[in-house]
Amino acid sequence: MKRMNSLFIPMATIGLALYFIPQAPFEHILPALPQVLGTMLLTNALSFYYKIFVYKKLSPKYGKYRPWIIAGGIPSLVMIILLAYMPFNNMPYYTRFWVLHLLFSFYNNFSSFAGQAGNMANVISPNTEERTRIMSFGTFLGSAIPSVLNVVLPVLATMTGGYENLRTYRIVMPGLLLVFIPMTYILAFKVEDKVVIAKTHKPNISLKQGAKAVLSNKYHWINHISALLGSVNAASIAFVNVLFVYSLRKEWLIGLYMTIIGLAYNPGFFLAPSLIRRFDKKNVRIFSNTMHIINTFAMYFAIKADSFVIFLISNFLTVLFVTPGDIAAQAMGADQWDYQQYRYGERLDGFAGIFGLFMTPLTTLTGMIVPTIFASIGFTSDWDILYDPLMRNKIVYISVILNALSFTLRIIPYFFYDLSTEKHKFIIDELKKRAELEESLAAQEASEATPAEAGAGE
Fold first, then answer.
1. What is the number of other CB atoms lying within 10 angstroms of the CB of residue 324?
2. What's the whole-model pTM score?
3. Are 334 and 424 in contact (CB under 8 A)?
4. Nearest Cα residue to 300 out of 282, 316, 315
5. DSSP readout, 278-307?
6. CA 233, CA 227: separation in Å to the nearest integer?
């Protein structure tokens, strides 16, 4: 902490000082450049001390993920209200620029509270089948509430002048957040982490040790290599837009299509636990990607035939069978951290970001494949070119090949995945034995130390 304080306290001080430097000399580089740099320094320091507060004050009582909900919900709401009520119209452009940058930077520091449900599902039970059921129900509930909100929100917005009226963002949005953000606190106070670990266990691992252990987990590599290979179609066009906007030229059908497709998710959520229990997560996930491949070609024929019915039926069936694959993928991620603890003695969830050092540059490169191919045939940023049937068919054909290739490559690494339900059950049983042994040894050491301490006192 002394070393960190020597770094972050001067950083925050310099950041604050930069707000008082005139921005005019830097106008030709970037509006409010000193203030923007000041915000970057200040928020870096804030982020560090925010994390230290959460880890020291909240984590010992509330676990690994729930503290972020407790600490982040209210500050996020405050930032959103400030964004709605600040008098930006009365500010010079450069002032508006750095104030918005400041507010969004602060918001991003706290907003991770909204994404903790998935992380908490990983530690809510050591039983993989029970965990899968919870994930399925949680995903259903997490999609049902937004679906209802998508109906209610436009109605409320019309009462305040619509989406282009500032009153909507000053009244409707904060009002809804005042209702829904407190609901997230149910996750913070009404559930518990149930990781199999001795109560006396105190992790003590260096950055180097943690990174090495996580990078030695073959299941993490399977996940990330699959994602990397599957990103060859990044930036490909959306077939929904191609059919309804540029081929049929009936944009109003998108709403009907999305409503019907939305119904396909619900059976998938409820089918997921039984399918995963019968066929195992790996096989469900492979089948899910196979369905994506079949659907890619079905959508191609639907677009060629200008058929709304073929397009709808194909995507409905795909969503129906792919949804259990999404649940299986989430459950596999949770199992992998149990294996991490079994194999290396610590869960090490916090070291997951180490893969970004390798994968982010590679994903950036694969993300350039589609734009490069599209540019070579004359399709860049002018989407009106898709109204031309010849160009549209050429672009769709290329997209079909890339999508099919992407889903095929994504499957391959999972043929090397062998963390079955039976193997996971063995891992949990072994972790329970280790925890009991560690607690027994700690109790024995404590009982042996007590008489010695008493004698020393005499």
1. 27
2. 0.72
3. no
4. 315
5. HH-HHHHHHHHHHHHHHHHHHHHHHHHTT-
6. 11
Give the 3-state DSSP-derived string for 301-350, with helices as H, strands as E and coil as C. HHHHCCCHHHHHHHHHHHHHHHHHHHHHHHHHHHHHHHHHHHHHCCCCHH
Helix, strand, or coil (residue 98): helix
By the 8 A CB rule, do 233 and 370 touch?
yes
- The first and second tokens of residue 418, run together, are 């062998």
Helix H or strand E encompassing 424: helix 421-457
What residues does each domain of the chain span? 2-189, 207-435
Res 189 pLDDT > 90: no
DSSP state of 112: G
* Contact (Cβ atoms closer than 8 angstroms) between residue 292 and residue 238: no
Nearest CA among 125, 121, 80, 119 for reference residue 103: 80
**Contact present, 284 and 229 (Cβ < 8 Å):** no
Separation between Cα atoms, residue 115 and residue 122, nearest integer Å = 13
What tens digit of pLDDT does each residue of 139-165 get? 777 777 776 776 777 788 888 888 778
> pLDDT digit string (tens) for 293-339?
999 999 999 998 989 999 999 999 999 889 899 899 989 988 998 99
Rounded to whole angstroms, how far apart are CA atoms 306 and 360? 38
What is the token pair recorded at 228?
């990397």
**Number of other CB atoms surrounding residue 434 within 10 Å:** 17
| Residues 97, 103: Cα–Cα separation, whole Å | 10
Could you report the per-residue pLDDT of 259-279, keeping only the tens digit for each? 788 788 888 888 888 899 889
Q: Does domain 207-435 have CATH number 1.20.1250.20?
A: yes
Backbone angles phi and psi of 189, in degrees to 5: -110, -15
What span, in angstroms and rounded, lies between the C-alpha atoms of 285 and 288?
A: 5
Q: Could you tell me the two tokens for 327? A: 């649940």
CA gap 326, 136 in Å, rounded = 9
